[in-house]
């Protein structure tokens, strides 16, 4: 196994135009390929395991079918979800409520697979750092782990009530989710260092960044990109972890929406009384109208943010964008 010191890394950086060597552990049999965007490395294939991608797409199909056609939990749904699913059912005219438990079990199986796969992908990347894993393949593994983790997070919306009723499964899920979130966060941090050749060993970037071989260390774009990715990743994990428990979900729902909403309703009632009891009706009417618009806007915003449709579409967009 090669030893990567600063001299070795400096030499490799100076020869960054050399062809990228194919990694047999990543580019293997039983995969589909697409070419790298760079013309210099157009002969190198970007590998994606077929079964991994297939199960992710199949999971999304199951989630969509359950969301649209399962009527068994209609009373517990968000007003926006009820309106959307009611409209779609008029077009499809099919009720699969009897299939609901089977679909949940299938999504649970694929959810477990995506969670374990994400941890395995990142573990494989960490284990190959000392062996000279190139920057390009490290970035590729990060993309696969991103795809896997967000697919897993998408399944948790459908599986929420399952975990509310199964405390042991919920504890294991929370533990593994924290492990994956920490591994992803640590793996994303070095991406702040921009514009390294794809064939440079990733360990050189991680170990000798302060000197950086005379290369610019950090750019504004890389800092902004990293901040956006980390903010989205951490917020997605935090919201899903909160929703895995009925207690924490109810607690945050109470203090973030119910209590502030009741306070604002009380304030609107006070303004309504002022309009009727005082001579400065125009002033109080203007205030009442302004705060009523704010109230309606916030209620619509919370309804959208709490809807299952928003959770699915938001995660789906960030997986495939």
| Beta-strand share of residues | under 5%
Give me the side-by-side strand order of the main sheet. 1-2
Q: Which structural class fits the helix and strand makeup?
A: mainly alpha
Radius of gyration: 25 Å
Low-confidence stretches: 29-47
Largest sheet: 2 strands, antiparallel
Number of strands: 2
- How far apart the termini lie comes to 38 Å
Secondary-structure element sequence? HEEHHHHHHHHHHH
Bin the helical content: 55-70%
Q: Number of helical segments?
A: 12
Shape: globular
What does the average pLDDT come to?
76
Quick structural gist:
The protein has 12 helices and 2 strands, in the order H-E-E-H-H-H-H-H-H-H-H-H-H-H. The chain has helices spanning 6-14, 50-69, 79-92, 100-127, 135-158, 160-165, 167-188, 202-207, 220-243, 246-277, 281-306, 308-320, and strands spanning 31-35, 45-49. The longest helix is centred in the last third of the chain and has 32 residues, at 246-277.
Topology at a glance:
Layout lengths: L5 H9 L16 E5 L9 E5 H20 L9 H14 L7 H28 L7 H24 L1 H6 L1 H22 L13 H6 L12 H24 L2 H32 L3 H26 L1 H13 L1
Antiparallel strand pairs: 1-2
Helix pairs in contact: 2-4, 2-5, 4-5, 4-7, 5-7, 5-12, 7-9, 10-11
